[in-house]
Amino acid sequence: MPYVLGIDIGSSNTTAAVARRRGATWTRPEAVPLSAGSPLMPSVLCLAEDGSLRVGEPATDDGSRTTRDFVHRIGDDVPVLLGGEPCAPQTLTAELAAWVVERVHALQGEAAEAIVLSHPAGWRPYRREVLHRALSNLGLRHVTLLPRTVTVAESHAARGFAGNIAVVYALGGNSFEAALVRRTPRGTYETVGTPQGLESIGGADFDEALAEHARTMLARELAATGRRGAQAALRGLRAECDRVKRVLTVDLTADVVLTLPSGPARVPVTRAQFEAMIRPTVQATVDLLLRAVRGADLTPAQLDGVLLAGGSTRVPLVTELISAALPVPVEVEPDAQLTAATGAAMAACQVVSPRPRQPAPARVPAPVSGAGPSTLPAPRRPHHTVPGDPPPRPPVRILPLELPKPSRLALARSRGREG
């Protein structure tokens, strides 16, 4: 059955979704199992001894042959060193995208009619150009690049969000971005104003906060095991803290469990303790969200909603602080880690079958690439009218996620250097 493909290469994980053609319409996008039945593939590339690139976390590696979070270095003149060999970040990103395309091709039995790949909202034309060139060098000559904030909005729209003006809050493993989006006359979305973001804040900070707490509480026990014993016990601490973080999104208490030579050691953590640890980090992202709104001279009453994406947005404190700052609906999908990929698939449907033009919505500030005066929409009534009432909070559904096993499939790697 003909299909289109959406891809999101995040700082921590890569996801993909397909929408299939059914007559004159398209089915709702479905996540693609990229590894061991899971839709999540770690955004990691490892240079094997035979010179091929392999996707996913290696079983063993000293770090010199493995690279992560290379997407944010696209356009950087300084190459990434893998096994002592320089590799352009855009080439590595294109290799990972090509692996996803080939994986989906094998599962579907045919090539996609269109491919949309998301990218950080703050990218300028140069970074998109070098990635397009790298994709073309690997045979992917007709990939559409769209800002992640746009694909997030497209995904929420497919699930029923009907607003014209919204602000997107995307919190990944090691990055954060926020930007205003507006509905175009064709019913799609575009980014407006100046996107805000940080490439050093994400869900990994939440894990590290828990890990630091566990190390502090078990300092005496770890010291008693000796250096090697402590290193062995701490090897899986970050993965354990990620598990506890997810448990605390639905439960009020959880235990960080470490295996010591003397037996299991447990560090009880309450949700209140965890939220106190991460509150400064979450507040910093909310401040950037507000800056994106103020930078466009909008008031909260002129927004139709806040659209969330990224696995870390399942933490209840995120919705709580956003709702306290902006009295508008906060929309979060059941599996927020897949939002950008499913939205990219929705956008790919429009590449093949563009929607007819609709009456233009009220104008807001010009897109990032545009200039000139604009007219703001009239203020709308707030969703709550009694002074002091808290803004409405959406229900948050938490789905358990399992990390995929490392991929053992090799990629043919490009040896040419790009300018």
Automatic annotation (TrEMBL):
Keywords: ATP-binding, Chaperone, Nucleotide-binding, Stress response. This is Molecular chaperone DnaK (HSP70). Residues 354-419 are annotated as: Disordered. Residues 388-397 have a biased composition (Pro residues). InterPro entries: ATPase_NBD, Heat_shock_70_CS, Hsp_70_fam. The lineage of its organism: Bacteria, Bacillati, Actinomycetota, Actinomycetes, Micromonosporales. Belongs to the heat shock protein 70 family. The keyword Chaperone applies. It comes from the Bacteria.
